[in-house]
Structure formats: C-alpha cells, structure tokens
Amino acid sequence: MTIMKPLRQVGIVSYGAYIPRYRLPAQEINRIWHGNAGLLPVKAKAVPGPDEDTITMSIEAARNALRRAQVDPSELRAVWIGSESHPYAVKPSSTIVAEAIGATPQTLAGDWEFACKAGTEALQAAIALVGSGMAHYALAIGMDTAQGRPGDALEYTAAAGGAAYIVGPGEESLALLEGSFSFVTNTPDFWRRPYQHYPQHGGRFTGQPAYFRHSREAAQHLMEELGYKPEDFAYVVFHQPNVRFPTRVAKELGFRPEQVQPGLLSPEIGNAYAGSSLVGLSAVLDIAQPGQRILQVSFGSGAGSDAFCWLITERINERQNLAPKTRDYIARRREIDYGLYVRYRGKLLMH
Amino acid sequence: MDISAYWRTRKQRLSLTGEICPHCGAKLFPPRDICPHCGKPARTPYHFSGRGTVYSFSIVYNPPEGFEPFVPYVVALVKLEEGSLITAQLTDVEPECVYIGMPVEMVTRKMREEDEDGLVIYNYKFRPVLQPTSL
Ligand SMILES: [Zn+2]
User: Fold this and answer.
1) Three-state SS for B91?
2) How far apart are the C-alpha atoms of A26 and A232, rounded to whole Å?
3) Which domains does chain B have, with CATH numbers?
4) 3-class secondary-structure state, position A263
5) How far apart (Å, rounded) are the C-alpha atoms in residues A348 and A209?
6) Torsion B82-A21-A72-B30 (CA) sign
7) What share of chain B in percent tops pLDDT 90?
8) Residue B134 confidence (pLDDT)
9) Residue A349: per-residue pLDDT
C-alpha cells in the first residue's frame, strides 16, 4: 500500500477561508505592460491591503475555523502555517497567529515551506499528529501574498488568499479522510533565491514535467488505491496557478466541468499559491452535502503534489453557516488600478 | 516601540483581550487591573466580541511617522457592544464611506513596520461588518 492513512479515523472538524478585498483586473496589467495585446490567464487577482500579510490573513481564516468548530483554541496542539510569503525571514508567523487566536502556550507552532504545496504539507502533518493520538486537534493553514515580477507572466496571477483547517477525530469531523497520497520529485520549475524579491520560473517547463505530471500521478494513484473513479466524486479541486492548468488536468483524468467549477476560484482571485487548493476546497465545503466525496490535489513547485480523498459527513450542515463563506469574501471586492497596486504592494523604490 | 511594552500588551493588541470586574461586572478595555467603576481589583481576562459601531471618527491626511502607507485613513472611536469606547484605525473602507453608527468588527492587522530590519507591529483595527452573499 502506498497511500497514507492514520490508524485512527481523522478528518476535517472545521475550516475557514480568507481572501482580501482588493482586485487587480488582469486587463490593468495587460494595459501597462503588454499594450493590451496579452492573453489574460484570469479575470482578476486578489491583492492584500497595505496592512495585510500572511499573518493577518491566517488569523482571520483561523478565527473563522474556530467559529465553525466551536472548539476552545487552547485545545489546538499545533498551529502550522504553510506559505512562501512569511513576513519574517526569521521569527515564526505561527507564534503570532497562535497568540492572536488564543492557542498559546500549550501548542506546537511552526512555519512550513514548499512553494505552493506548503499548506497541504502542513495539513498532512496535522492529520498524522491527530492520527497518532498525540493531539486531539491540530490547525493547518495555507496562506500566501504572492508577488510576480512586474511585466512577468506570473504578475497576472500571483495573488493572495488561503484557508485554515482544524483536523480532529473522525467522530467530530465534517469530512473524513479516506486516504492521502504524496508524489514528489526534484524538478526545478520555479524558485527564489535568498534576498531576491521575485521568483524565477522555467516558462513552459512549469507545465508538463511539473504541474501536470505531479498532479496527475498523485490523483491517479490515490483513486486507484482507493478503488474510485472520477464519477465517485462530487467535486474535484486542483492547485490553480491559472484557469487552463486545473481545467485541463481535470479533463484528462476524466472529470466533468460541473465537478471542477464550484472549487475553481482562480478566474476571480488568481493563484493563492500555498492557499490555492485549500481555499478551493473551502468553497466546495461551503456547499457540500453528507455522503459526497471530494478529491483535492495540491501542487508545489520544486516539485510535488498531495492528494486527499474527503468523505462529507452529517455534521457538515450544522457548521457551514457558522462563519463567513468563501464566496462572501469573493463577493467583497474593490477593483484597484495598477498605480494603487504598486503602492499597496510596496513596488515603488524611492530614490 | 519598546519590545517589552509591545510584548506586555500583545493580548490586547492581537485579540482585544481586556478584563472583567469580578465585583461589579464592568468590562474593561484596555485592561487596567483596577475597576474605574467600583475601584476594586479587576484582573480577570475578558475576550471582547469585537463587534461595535462607529461613535465618532476623523480622517487622517498628515500621519504620525510609520503610518504613511495607509494615508488617507480613518481613526474612529468605536463603541463596543460590551459598552467600552476605544480608539482604533478603520481598515478595508474608503474614508468617504464611513458614517456614525456604522457597524464594524475587529480584525488583527499590521499597524506599522519599524524600519526595514525592525519589528512588524500587529494591532486591532475595525472594518465594516462582512456581508454574507445570498446564494
Ligand atoms: Zn467594578
């Protein structure tokens, strides 16, 4: 057996999303850098306000998860945050978030790093911590405020957002873990060296050998081992670096558009990096019904994918309305122009 | 900001934790250990809901040092639903949209950054209450 599953039944007890309020329309970037001649990979991307970062966004997502769980924050035995935009190079984001939500001092806290897979890596670890019996509850967050180099293709999509998940015992869960699978190779498709503000990427190389291979392998292995076919899932959520990649990999694997659409947020918010598949999953959990099955597949450059199979339980309906939904944050939008974007994101160098 | 002062006030700054007076039930923010209503010791932590309304406000165009990134911004007196009146920055709102009586909720945000190599100071702010979408 290559799939992973703890000896004890575990699942998602609660979840909370966060997406910032500002949107930069892709057309604005096209106007500034490409003479209106570019192909737009998304409609707009979510941009954090000048007082937001991965820490503040994680705090709000975590508070939403706690509200939905109605769990005492002091019962969380881990606060783990996956991101590639931690505000400090040295000083954990997780201690600040843990303090703000009331989880300190009897808890683990740590920041995880694996490009866009950091959030689901934290989720896998939270599953293991609860599954081993070391913890009753663990909090895993994927959150990012991604930056693309001005004028680069990534600038269209590098966005902000994410979600927080409280993992706990199966009997308290709104979604049971049926199994997970991780697929990792050394693939240099995207990187950022120390002290560099913007990442570099391998252009077309980010497609087939990186995103498609890892997403496909992780999804296929998990489905085969569990004996499921695409039609056994109500929803599928992939990592969303744009609209084309997740749409294409889903189609290649045999999923229908109606299984993909509810969790496909990239057209409206862009690529939330470490938060991408997690906030896609939260949008699906907002509307899921007992008995439905969800396939979630993350992807992180470098490269790897984590695939999870979730089975929705009877507890879903009592918790869906206890906190703001993912779509509430998507609907809360104020468009900004490129000038305000440059100011908010600190892209101006004063000489 | 002095590191020790920031550390001592972290719970009130990050999560709006004040105190409740065990003698008369008054809820205190910021925490001050002595109840201003009955004069007795009040050291029991109390977690405020973070919901309130704008009592009064002013738009800041000439900010103190460190607040330049947010100009123009609104500083408001917020009446918390527990009764306390506190001063806080509003966020996620254009100044022209703020009005007296506006329902607001607490969020934890960056208040300022101390130089390139200094601390990032996080603090409570208030924003218009998030509106649910009707699906
Ligand atoms: Zn008193």
Assistant:
1) coil
2) 36
3) 1-48 (no CATH), 49-128 (2.40.50)
4) helix
5) 35
6) negative
7) 92
8) 60
9) 82
What average pLDDT does chain A have? 96
Nearest of A60, A138, A73 to residue B130 by alpha carbon: A60
Name residue A302's amino acid.
Answer: G
Mean pLDDT throughout B20-29?
A: 95
Structure tokens at A174: 């709104």
Q: How many contacts, defined by CB atoms under 8 Å, are there between A and B?
A: 64
Q: Which domain holds residue A235?
A: 176-317
Alpha helices in A36-150 (DSSP H): 54-69, 93-101, 118-131
Mutate which of A21, A23, A51, A326 to disrupt the B interface (most B C-beta within 10 Å)?
A51
pLDDT beyond 80 at A113: yes
pLDDT given for residue A197 in this prediction: 87
- The rounded distance, in Å, linking the Cα atoms of A236 and B108 is 33
First-residue to last-residue Cα distance in chain B: 46
Q: Could you tell me which of B83, B78, B81 has the C-alpha nearest to residue B24? A: B83
Q: For residues A27 and A132, state if they share a domain.
A: yes
Would you say residue A120 has pLDDT above 70?
yes
Interface of B with A (CB under 8 A): 10-11, 14-15, 47, 69-70, 91-92, 107-111, 120, 122, 125, 130-133, 135
ipTM of the prediction: 0.96
Contact B11 A99 (CB under 8 A): yes
- State mean pLDDT over B107-133: 94
Structure tokens at A328: 């509430």
Instruction: Check which CATH number belongs to the domain holding A274 and give it.
Output: 3.40.47.10
Is the Cβ–Cβ distance between A32 and A255 less than 8 Å? no
Q: Which of A83, A19, A8 is nearest to A265 (CA)?
A: A19
Query: Phi-psi region for residue A110, left (φ > 0), alpha (ψ -120 to 50) or beta?
Result: beta
Enter the pTM of the model: 0.97
The torsion angles phi and psi of B29, rounded to 5 degrees, stand at: -145, 130
**For residue B103, which amino acid is it?**
P
Kindly report the backbone phi and psi dihedral angles of residue B87, in degrees, each rounded to the nearest multiple of 5, phi listed first. -95, 130
Q: What is the pLDDT of residues A1-42, one digit of tens each?
A: 589 999 999 999 999 999 999 999 999 999 999 999 989 999
In a domain, A349, yes or no: no
Q: Examine the domain organization and report whether A18 and A151 are in the same domain.
A: yes
